[in-house]
Specification:
34% of the residues lie in helices and 15% in strands. The chain is an alpha+beta fold and 333 residues long. It starts with 12 loop residues before the first helix and ends with a helix.
Length: 333
């Protein structure tokens, strides 16, 4: 998810219809609660969301300026990109008894790659994607968005295949039930929880995590100052106060830091942005908030970007049913 405003673009009709069928129960639930007008059409909602998710760039001409691609890499883990190493000052204090603050317990791999460096090879291996991924790929109108999606999902399949001892194209991924409506569009998982994973991509960068416990990652471009005010008003009250107290020139970086922490945590819990952004406190200051069940950490990223990871501090139940608890507004106001 990106915090950028939508700009004019049309999504692929087939992808919109497919997504609308999956998300219709969620739309109906929002209508029943009075959060959407009566008669709201699921396809219109999905179309609007698809614009917001995809169009975080400038003009179409700017979006088309994708850098030169690197030479082809092998069919397993991409050789271009970096495994992220943690420093002591990147991790929030860990609750007593849960382990040292310099580690991310359960995290097996944190990997970041630049889309222009990997786009050519990923396009040559798009046959690794499954039918659902291919439909979603075709929904992107701009080449820069298609490149980011392809790089992210081809890389994820290679990493999961290596981890599971399978061919990348043989890896099966499903979705948990939606935490809001129970529909089949919740957090993506490998059946049986053999490994947990999370991926995020924005204009130019991809971030992937593999772990033995539930995990979430997010990477975003630091926004322009004018984009912050409206979205910041939806944050946790304490986060709003922290942003207000920061010098004006630090607002974009502080907001991006807060947003990536929040989305990483909500992705890890499986709640996603169905939850009111004011409910969960992650902090906008130099250090992320600490919780009893979750560890948050800021990650190194290219200049102009922010990134974060959230990892569960306890092993998920064998059933695979996750019932995590994140810090709530009433806990931290």
């Amino acid at each position: 998810m990106t915090y950028a405003p939508a700009r004019a673009a049309d999504s692929a009709a087939a992808a919109v219809r497919s997504a609308a069928e999956e998300w219709a129960p969620c739309v109906d639930a929002f209508v029943a609660r009075g959060e959407l007008p009566a008669g709201t059409d699921a396809q219109e909602v999905i179309r609007a969301v698809s614009l917001i998710l995809r169009c975080d760039h400038g003009s179409e001409a700017e979006c088309a300026q994708v850098g030169e691609s690197s030479p082809a890499v092998n069919t397993r883990r991409p050789s271009t990109g970096v495994e992220i190493q943690m420093r002591d000052d990147m991790v929030a204090d860990v609750p007593a008894g849960s382990g040292p603050a310099t580690t991310l317990p359960g995290v097996e791999l944190l990997w970041s790659g630049r889309v222009p460096d990997l786009a050519e090879d990923a396009a040559a291996h798009r046959h690794l994607l499954d039918a659902e991924e291919s439909v979603r790929l075709e929904a992107f109108r701009l080449a820069v968005d298609r490149d980011a999606y392809t790089v992210a999902h081809v890389a994820l399949r290679r990493m999961l295949g290596e981890r599971l001892g399978q061919a990348p194209e043989a890896v099966t991924m499903t979705r948990r039930p939606c935490t809001h409506c129970g529909g089949p569009h919740g957090r993506p998982v490998v059946p049986g929880n053999a490994v947990h994973f999370s991926l995020s991509h924005t204009s130019g960068l991809v971030l992937i995590a593999l772990a033995s416990v539930p995990v979430g990652v997010d990477v975003e471009a630091v926004p322009e100052p004018g984009m912050i005010t409206e979205v910041a008003a939806q944050l946790h009250p304490r986060e709003r106060r922290e942003l207000a107290a920061a010098p004006a020139e630090q607002h974009p970086a502080a907001f991006a830091r807060c947003w990536t922490r929040k989305e990483a945590l909500l992705k890890a819990t499986g709640v996603g942005l169905n939850e009111d952004l004011s409910h969960t406190y992650v902090g906008a200051g130099a250090q992320p908030a600490a919780g009893a069940d979750w560890l948050l950490a800021d990650l190194p990223a290219d200049p102009g970007y922010a990134a974060a990871v959230a990892v569960h501090l306890r092993q998920a139940p064998a059933s695979g049913v996750e019932q995590p608890r994140a810090p709530r507004a009433q806990d931290t106001q």
